[in-house]
Target: Exopolyphosphatase
Amino acid sequence: MIEIERPREIAAIDMGSNSFHMVVARVVGHSLQIVSRHKQRVHLAEGLNDNMDLDQAAIQRGLSCLTMFAERLQGFAPENVRIAATYTLRQARNAHVFLKRAERVLPYPIEIIPGTEEARLIYLGVAHTQHEPGRKLVVDIGGGSTELIIGEGFDPQLQYSKHMGCVSYNQHFFPNGKISAKAITKAQMAALQKMESIASKYRKMGWDTAIGSSGTIKAIREVVIAQGHADGVITRERLDEVVKQVSACKQSSELNLPGLTEDRKPVFAAGVAILSAVFSALKIDTMIFSDGALREGLLYEMEDRFRQSDIRSRTATAMAAQYNVDIDQANRVKNTAEHLYSQIADPSASHTPELASLLSWGALLHEVGLSISYPGFHRHSAYLLRHSTMPGFNLEQQTVLATLVRFQRKPLKLDEMPELTIYNRKHIYPMIRALRLAVALHGQRSDEPLPALTLSADKEKWQLTLPDGWQGNNRLLAADLAKERDYWQKTGWELSISPEEECE
Model:
């Protein structure tokens, strides 16, 4: 009997400010076949208080939704699931509390992604599902932020994320569901001010087709269709008519527009005001709608990574070039760090391949801070890796990169390590040690290859074995290793270098 291999199933979850979405697909050849979609209104952004803390009610709504999603994901391997959290968890000071509780109901890492990364993934989702020729402008109005991207093919060329969303604007301009023409005008003006700094760039670059995605624009499109425009195209005139109709209402509950669902009513006025401002700022004439969005972008990027195409490698290489990194030295440190880490990492642990990749990228970029100044360059490097736009990396991955380069040299002030939610500190410490040893071993910046190095580890005790006599012929390097050994000792780690007498 011939056994037919079952297609791989992958899943993506978009934890938005208004709704959580999950989509499951099968990888068939080099394409994706969507097999199920799930959506739950969570209104996460409504739980943000003035101190930017999520209240318990919002946290519980989110956890309840994730518990339901977990039922569908039973049996999925971790590498086949990606979960991205967006604006609200980017802003929430107590996001770590939510993430810790989420781990108990959904055993997969939740990535909090930067706004620009959200924009990139939205574009990827639209580009794969909406095959329009030429250059595309993609607009996605979410609960807490609006993403605007211009790209061609599958490559975004200009992307921004603005802090204006249908939930946040609804709370600010339409409290308690009150609607008025004056409130709509104020919301439009606020959105126009947000667009002011980028509008000219977008108009100058131009586009052939404007495409809207996600719930807000979909809701407006449904209203346009119900008003007799079967093509579903949102034009300036049709949008103005919707604005006029919304302005005539005094309460969101009175928005009895054909095509408008009950669950969309509370945030509809805010969404209409934002889209109207975007149309005005960018001088958009017509916009079509795409079913593709962030979750589809996550799926397609996962499918890309199955084919060993990782945008993060391109990002790291481009960043090294941008900051004029000495690429020969960076590669020397990178290769040695990889070699050392491979000798002590647990190959059977699920996190090892991902952490090994992060160590490689961190080593490649460990000297980006030299572009600012030599004194304290490890801190400058950490700042750049934490705060730069790095396509493909989520916020926690950038934090890990920043942590690695921050602790590559000088005393180990581990109390300054940031909190992590996806990764565990005990997994990061070996990466720090491997990078520090690689940096020390290449401190002379020589092209001469290192001798054979053997590394073994027993928890906090590491043993580095070098050839007999080698340190005697490399006294400056031996002194650097001895100094490194002292740094380790002060933080409770132990580094032994043999032959021992050569280190003295």
